[in-house]
What does this fold into?
Amino acid sequence: MAHPSPDPDDVGPAVASLETIVSLAKRRGFVYPSSEIYGGINAVWDYGPLGVELKNNVKRAWWRAMVQERNDVVGLDAGILMHPQVWITSGHVGSFSDPLVECATDHRRFRLDELPGAEHLSATELRDPAIVEKLGLVCPVDGGPLSAPRRFNLMFKTFMGPVEEDAAIVYLRPETAQGSYVNFKNVQQSSRKKLPFGIAQIGKSFRNEISPGNFVFRMREFEQMEMQYFVKPAEAAAIFEDWLPRRFGWYTKYGVTESRLRFREHAPDELAHYAKKAVDVEYRFPFGWKELEGIHNRGDFDLSRHQEASGENLEYFDPATEEHFIPFIVETAGGADRAAFTFLIDAYREEEVRGEKRVVLGLHPELAPYKVAVLPLLKKRPEIVELCHKLRADLAFDTMAVYDDTAAIGKLYRRQDEIGTPWCVTVDVDSLEDGAVTVRDRDSMAQDRVPVENVKRLILDRLAAARAAGGES
Ligand code: GAP
It folds into this structure.
């Protein structure tokens, strides 16, 4: 593998507790429980004013790396609802399931591999009908006896059209990938791409997870960022290896601490039915090492199956060798919510400054919800406030800028630190005389006096420098 994996036991999580992040997220408007005034709905979360900015920035950074900066990958936005046959052909209707056990006394249901004592079972052991009995597993809530495991399908169903009958059943997609497979011919022919080339998609997916949780880590409605790379069969193994460091590097480029990332290869009995090889990029979350993104060599399974079931010829014609063949697919499959969550966790730090606690979200400037805050030193002076508004409006033409005057300057700085704003610009009494303002850096807290007409250029140059650091994604 191209990248060394650190010893998992050496690395602590970025934050001591998940509660710290959940509380910050709610208080500052990153993420709220969905439908909270009705008591919430399990496993769905709403992104608030700062969260939507963060997640949009994550998606933009991904699109930049996977589409904009590459000549060999194009975008697609396929429907969430698809012909139901897609999901039968793909194997999801038959086998997209997790092992479920039920407590005989309180009827709570659990995912077998998340029960205490069963977390490290192999895929073969998880399929063993006698495993609960063999390990003496009991309900973690009331200690009651558990049923033998059965497979629970994760597909959400609904009806299309005005009649609720079996013939009208459609599924909410559980992955974006199938939209790229069924559009392979459309995209290849309309964009005249030659192998190898990729189709990238960002969009909502839905899974009726047995045990969602850990905040936005596992939800029932979530967003994926997936890229399907179509390749010649003989080249698939090498191209797969190339994508590993590239995807790992995307997370570190945008600020994730390298020692809290590792690769984990799937064991043969754990591989999905379609996969020839699969490697996860994992992150050291406060609740342990977990998957952030999967990179899969799917062979020719997807296009062969869709060709067979649809009757459409999905072969590629290679003009150089005059051969017709079904391409192999190398997939990079990540989650926008999980990535945003990871950037948030990894950016969080607490420091002591002059005897006081300072909470900083050291987000990469490209990911920060606001790039710059414009703050008045004295909000009672109308000329200062007016200059602030003028400056903010000018900055906002090119980037996310915010004005705040709801506290004294020290507190305003702390609030911006806590939401990750990389730069603050303060307008004071002297500004009215000398036309200069103070630009404060979030991380170093260094303050530079800058002529007001140079502020925008300075901020945009710093943003461009941050984007360029670490090279192409
Ligand atoms: N097309 C392949 C595929 O969907 P996956 O490993 O099942 O592979 C890819 O999903 C990524 O989608 C995961 O690595 C994760 O980041 C995200 N994801 C999957 N299920 C999720 C859930 N219930 N909540 C949030 N993100 C999820």
Remarks:
- Residues 49-68 form the longest helix (20 residues).
- The longest strand covers residues 221-231.
- The two ends are 19 Å apart (CA to CA).
